[in-house]
Structure formats: C-alpha cells, structure tokens
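Comment thread on ticket #2218

A.B. wrote:
> Attaching the input chain for the structure job we discussed in standup.
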Amino acid sequence: MLNNINTEKILFLDIETVPMQYSFSELDDRSKDLWNKKTVFLQKRDEKNAEEIYNMAGIYAEFGKIVCISVGFIAQINGEEQIRLKSFASEDEKVLLQEFLNLLNSKFNNESFMLCAHNGKEFDYPFLSRRILINGLKLPLLLDIAGKKPWEIRHLDTMELWKFGDYKNYTSLDLLTHIFNIPTSKDDIDGSQVAKVYYEDKDLERIIIYCEKDVIATIQLFRKYKGQDIINNDFIKSV
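C.D. wrote:
> Ran it. Output below, let me know if you need it in another format.
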C-alpha cells in the first residue's frame, strides 16, 4: 500500500534523450543498416522508410543518448515538506552519468531507498541502465536488478500505479497532471522537441528546466495518489 511507503526514501527522476546523431544521413553505413533492421516493424506500421522514422531514434538506447537527468526528493525542513531538485546535464553523456552515479552511490546506496518515474519501468530505468553499461560504467545498486525477484526490485512507476492491473492502458503524465489539477510540465516544450532544442538551439538549460518540471509533476502526482496535497512552489528548490 502506498501509505506504507516512506516518501522521503524515494528518489524521483526523469531523463531526456536525443538521437546519437541528429539526422539519419550522419550515421555510418553499418549504423544505418542496423537501424533499418531494428525498425522494420515500425516502418511497416507507419508506412515510412528507415530515414523517415529516424526521429524516433532517441527512445532506443542503442541509437540514442541521455542529455539530462533530473532528480528530486522530499525532505522535512523546519517542519515543512519541501522538494529538493538536482540535475545532471552535459554534451558528454559519460560525464553526466558518472555524476548521477556518484549521487546514487553516496546517498542512495542501500535497499531502503526506491526510485520513482512516470513510465520508468518501460523507459527511464532500462534506458539508464543500458547507457551506463555502454559507457563502461558500473550499475548502481538500485538499477542492478539481474537475478532479483519482482518484489525485491525497488522501482516505482506512477504510470503503472495508475493502471490498477489494466496492462493495456497507457496514460501520459500530461493527462494525469490535468485531471489531478497539477501544474503541467508541458507549458514550454515536450519530449518530441528535445532533439531540436539540443542540436539546433543548443539550449541545454531549457532542457534542464523541462526535465525538472517533469520530476516535480511526478512527485506531485505521487502525493495525489496518497491523498496528499501538492507541495507549494515556494517549497521547491534546486540544490
């Protein structure tokens, strides 16, 4: 039951990803061939060729990279519940991953802690884990799930919690924030625009702001699931 979960033991997170190369034409021949094979089903479904469907490359860890990881946690400060945020962003993916791992390994390195993300089990957690390994880094405790039983994996997912066993159902964070009257994180850009902002506008700061808003929205949504009020913006700080 959610009421038995200590919210202060949860690290909420969100990641922003982009294609490894901005355009299909920038890929080497081997990568083009492998992308074509990877997306055969999608090409048939959408009646597009490999190049036309390349805008989806950022959602595949084999063809995309992470440009921002934002995390947030709830802390009791002077008797008030407050949200604390921190972001890791860089053009060098290995650098930002190592900084994120340093945080996990120093502050969240035991199984009393949990991770929480919206659609985290289908996207954020596996994407993070794959990119960590691709960059030659070691998985932290909370992402090293090989051989663990399902109930031993310390992952929460606000989308899965909303399904209530209805596994065919997908509900976006944007929709859930709307129906729960939570300020939206989609008031500037959305996920489909991140690659353009990164490669064309070269505005990493804008991506950080968007990513942090998603973390805040996920925290506020989780509080609504627990029947709690959202935390006022005056008590949300970056560290």
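A.B. wrote:
> Thanks. Noting for the ticket: Residues 2-20+63-238 form a domain with the Nucleotidyltransferase; domain 5 fold (CATH 3.30.420.10).
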